[in-house]
Structure formats: C-alpha cells, structure tokens
Amino acid sequence: MSFSAPALSLQGVASTSVTVDMLVVFAVILLALVLFATEWLPIDVTAILLMVLLMVLEPWTQISPREGISGFASPATITVLAMLILSTGINRTGIVQKIGQKMAAYAGSDQRKQLAATIGITGPISGFINNTPVVAILVPVIADLAHEGKTSPSKLLMPLSFASMIGGTLTLIGTSTNILASDIAAQLGEQSPELDLQAFGMFEFTQLGIVVFAVGSLYLMTIGVRLLPERVPVEDDLVEEYALQEYLADVVVPASSSLIGQTVGEALGDEELDIDVLQLIRYGERFDEPLARKEIHENDTLRVRTNRETLERIMDAEGLTLLGGPQSEEDLHEDDEEPVLVEVVIPSGSFLVGETLSSSTFRQRYDANVLAFRSRGAVVRDRFEDIRIRVGDTLLVQAPPDSLTRLVQNEDFIVAHEFDDVNYRDEKIPFAVAIIAGVVALPALNVLPIVVSALAGVVAMIFTGVLKPNELYKSVEWNVIFLLAGVIPLGTALQQTGAAALLGDAVASTATFLPVIGVLWVFYIATGLLTSVISNNASVVLMIPVAASAAQSVGASAFAFVLAVTFAASTAFMTPVGYQTNLFVYGPGGYTFSDFLRVGAPLQLLLSVVTVLGIAFFWGLRV
C-alpha cells in the first residue's frame, strides 16, 4: 500500500474571514505550542497526539486518516532517517574524532586557536553530516581539549553548538530542518504552481550559508567569546565543580555496629535513605561496584554519597566514625586508574528519556553510581532518584573503567570525556567518505533525488562493512522521525482549512507601513522566537505555509520567504531548548538559561539582518 504526500495548497488566499475549521486548527496549534514549550510529554508523544487529534477532528481539520499518517511516507522523513544512519556510519569509523584530535594538537593551550579550531572544524563538517550527531561526537573532544589546554569548557562548548547550527545552513543535508523545508516547498509548488517553489538543490543556498557562517564565526571569535562566562573551572575537577564535598564522606564501621555481617545492599540499600556506597576499603584494598552483595566487616571504611542529615542519622544509629571525605577527583580513584568520574549527557532517543534513575535500573546495568544530577542548569546533589530525565540532562557518574567504556560505546549516552580504548573501524574511512561524497554529488548533479541517494548510501555502508545490519535501527533517533511524521499533517491542516492564508494576510498587512524586506525580516524574527520555545521542525511546518501565503499577498518571491523561515529555524541560539545541540552542551558547559540569551540573542539579531539582506542580494524579493 502506498500513501500520497500531504496535499498542501493555498486555498482562500484572498479570504480573511475566520471559520470554525480555522479555529479548531488554531486550537490544536495552541495545544502543540504549550506541549512543546512545557515538555509535559516527550516531543514524539506530543507529535503522535497531534496526529491523532487531527484525524479524530477530521470534519473540521480536513485531515483524513490517509493524510494523517502520510508524514511517515514523506520524502523528508525518509531522508532524515537515512541521514541519521549515514551519520552513525561516519561515527563508527572515528574520522570525526581523528579530525578533533588533530585540531587539539594544532590548538594547544592557545584559547583563540582552540576556539578557531572548534568553529572551523565543526561548521564545515556539519554541512555534510547531520549537525546533531556531529555535536554529540565532538562534545568529549572539545571538553578534553579545553581541560588539557587550561581553558574553561564554557568558553568552547556553546560555540561548538552554535557553529554546528550555522554550519548546517551550508547544504541541504546539514540539518533535518533544511530537508523538511525543502519537502514542504516542493509540495506547495506542486499544488500552487504560481508560487514557483520546488525542492531545494543540494547547494541551493550555499552562498548564503557561507556568508552566515563567516559572520557568525567572526561574532563568536570576537564578541561572543567575551560574553561567555567561565562557568566550569579551568581545573578538571568535577568534585569541586559540582560542589560535592558536603555530600561525600568516609566512615569506619566499628566492632559494635549492627552493619557487620550484612551485605551493603541489606544495610544501606533502602531507597528512602538516599545513600549510595561508592567504595568499600578493607586493609588498603578498594572494592568498587558492584557492592550490593559485598558483606561488611569490622573496621571496613565505606565511602558514601548522601546529605549531612542522613549521614548524621546513620552515624548515630550505627556508631560509625567519620574520617572526612574526598575533596577532589584525585581522592576518588588511584593515580594509575582511568578517570572514574565523568559527565554523561542524555541525548535524544536515549532509553533514559522519560525514565527516572530508579525505574531505569541504570545503576544495576552499568555498575555505576550517580553522584549529582544537572537538569536545565540546576544541580541536584541528593534525592534525585525519582526525577524524570529529559533530553540534555547531565549525570555525574562514578563507575569502573570497563563500565565507562560500555557507556561510551552506547549511543544512549554522550560521555564528556574521550577514552583511548574505544575501537573504531578506521580501515573503513575511505569507504565512508566516498559514500557521503556520492550521496552529496548525485542529487547535486540531478542524477538522483536526495531521498534515493541517501537510501542508496545506507545500502552501500552495509555492503562495505562501514555499518553492520543490526546497527541500522540503533542509528535512528526515532523520536525525531515520529516528530516529523506527527507535525507534517499539522501543516497540511493549516493549509487546507485556509488558516495559513488567514495568518499570511495578517502578516502581509504590515506591508502597508513596511517594505517587502521588512515583512521578510518579521518572518525571520517570528520564526526565531517560535523555534526558541518549540521544535525547529515544528516551526518550519507551521511557518512556511504562512510565509508563502504572505509572500503571494504582497507580490513577493515565495522562495525568499521560505528561505528566511528555513534559516531562522536552523539557527535558534537564544535558549538551550530551542535546538537539540544546545541541550548537549548545556550540562558539560555548566551554563545557565540566561547564558544562551546573553550570547545567542545578539547573534540571532545580527544573523537576521545578514540573512535577509543576503536573500535580497542573491535572489531578489520580487517575483
């Protein structure tokens, strides 16, 4: 069975009367904005809910079941799926990591070189590999570069995210937003030929992307770096950074204690106590995880994580003797061990998203202790077992080296530290590079559509051994796929009910006191603000039909308006939740919400002017 693409048209452009159908669609959109902004539900669940609502309300939304699920068959959805797999293939070869290591060797301890290398490497790579996995790969590389070069990671990680966003504007495949915008533009052009819209070419807007990247890079190298605070100390000490000294303690078990003879799990495993035993020391020998079944003996030293109130209660009840506690990372492990304390960022698609530490059995799976929890800039050091985990949350984890290696190799986590013993398929680098080159070249030469080229690239990666067949499904961020499939019908409803035309006419009315370029700038700013609180893909779906309608109303180029919306949605700098890569650096950079606003708002404003002027220069604004 095959499904047709969503039918998008610009019906009722001249009409400004509000209908019941429009009001119903506006209500669904309002619900979508609230759910995306508040994160009451995961974004993919919100998208499916919207899809169901649109189909249930078919008499008003005009979305049939066939149209409701057509987002799953959209070329944009399939192309994004394929590009995520191709990005994983590149990751498996270790080529990005190798480039990062060469970058670190070049930069050394010179902060300007470090920043220039971060931006100069991240941007161009993000033009040809989906920028989200690029940032996930480079977070540990840049964090280590910063610490080794005696620079605060806060000075480099936000520029890493921002550079990936502006680098994503270089080509069609740089971001999922570009691919989705291209698909929507093609559908609008097919339904309304007078708009003169079609799918974007691979390098359709590269000249503008180069200008945006150059201006954005200059800002980050000059103004941006001065606005960035040093939230994380230059010294690579996570105990001090998370202020854990008051939550870590060494206690000795006396002969009179009732803990003797019990296992650690039996004695201190009660979740209500909120106490973790990190290490057991017996006559100089250290025992780490798993400790739950380790029997406690007289004179054992237990290293515990808990708050002072709980510690005092346990000491009073059991007669334990306080020895003090770790004051730095060095106190947590032997000098000859690998680092056992790392930050772990939760990416989109992780099994931990929506779970708690208790429900996920994270500790049991990885023999790991979570010492602190950072969510949306706030650090929690105790009673975090039942906090629901969201994308971008950061866990401060202590675990044996073999467990940390398993965490590094699991795509459910971004470990903000590089490990030397990770095995990459470096012998497959030539194949991976050739495949990506083919995926880019074939659509650019109009030999194959991008969706066919990308899927062919996936097959080629399997045949050449860059990827194994069982890695295909693990490579896809399914929440992104469901998000795309869920919001595409929302754009269809916006069109078919005339709601897009109504909004377009409303914005077009500003042409009575603004020139066309001013109306274009309004769309850029509106899209940027919308993307700051909801998904960038949802912003594109909602804004492109309205922008095309407004362009038609004022006699302007629909392509110019669509391109402005696309660039604005791809460069959401002002909040950490506006773009997924911002969430990846939020925790390891130690940023607060206001840091993104302080550094990102001037950049957003600057690029709004540059982009609008660039569109006018390269393509013109009139039909």
UniProtKB/TrEMBL annotation:
<keyword id="KW-0472">Membrane</keyword>
<dbReference type="InterPro" id="IPR006037">
    <property type="entry name" value="RCK_C"/>
</dbReference>
<dbReference type="InterPro" id="IPR036721">
    <property type="entry name" value="RCK_C_sf"/>
</dbReference>
<feature type="transmembrane region" description="Helical">
    <location>
        <begin position="156"/>
        <end position="180"/>
    </location>
</feature>
<feature type="domain" description="RCK C-terminal">
    <location>
        <begin position="236"/>
        <end position="320"/>
    </location>
</feature>
<dbReference type="Pfam" id="PF03600">
    <property type="entry name" value="CitMHS"/>
</dbReference>
<feature type="transmembrane region" description="Helical">
    <location>
        <begin position="599"/>
        <end position="621"/>
    </location>
</feature>
<dbReference type="GO" id="GO:0008324">
    <property type="term" value="F:monoatomic cation transmembrane transporter activity"/>
</dbReference>
<protein>
    <submittedName>
        <fullName>Di-and tricarboxylate transporter</fullName>
    </submittedName>
</protein>
<dbReference type="Pfam" id="PF02080">
    <property type="entry name" value="TrkA_C"/>
</dbReference>
<dbReference type="InterPro" id="IPR004680">
    <property type="entry name" value="Cit_transptr-like_dom"/>
</dbReference>
<keyword id="KW-0812">Transmembrane</keyword>
<dbReference type="GO" id="GO:0005886">
    <property type="term" value="C:plasma membrane"/>
</dbReference>
<feature type="transmembrane region" description="Helical">
    <location>
        <begin position="200"/>
        <end position="221"/>
    </location>
</feature>
<feature type="transmembrane region" description="Helical">
    <location>
        <begin position="558"/>
        <end position="579"/>
    </location>
</feature>
<feature type="domain" description="RCK C-terminal">
    <location>
        <begin position="329"/>
        <end position="413"/>
    </location>
</feature>
<keyword id="KW-0813">Transport</keyword>
<keyword id="KW-1133">Transmembrane helix</keyword>
<feature type="transmembrane region" description="Helical">
    <location>
        <begin position="476"/>
        <end position="494"/>
    </location>
</feature>
<feature type="transmembrane region" description="Helical">
    <location>
        <begin position="69"/>
        <end position="90"/>
    </location>
</feature>
<feature type="transmembrane region" description="Helical">
    <location>
        <begin position="506"/>
        <end position="527"/>
    </location>
</feature>
<feature type="transmembrane region" description="Helical">
    <location>
        <begin position="431"/>
        <end position="464"/>
    </location>
</feature>
<dbReference type="GO" id="GO:0006813">
    <property type="term" value="P:potassium ion transport"/>
</dbReference>
<feature type="transmembrane region" description="Helical">
    <location>
        <begin position="12"/>
        <end position="33"/>
    </location>
</feature>
<keyword id="KW-0677">Repeat</keyword>
<dbReference type="InterPro" id="IPR051679">
    <property type="entry name" value="DASS-Related_Transporters"/>
</dbReference>
<feature type="transmembrane region" description="Helical">
    <location>
        <begin position="40"/>
        <end position="57"/>
    </location>
</feature>
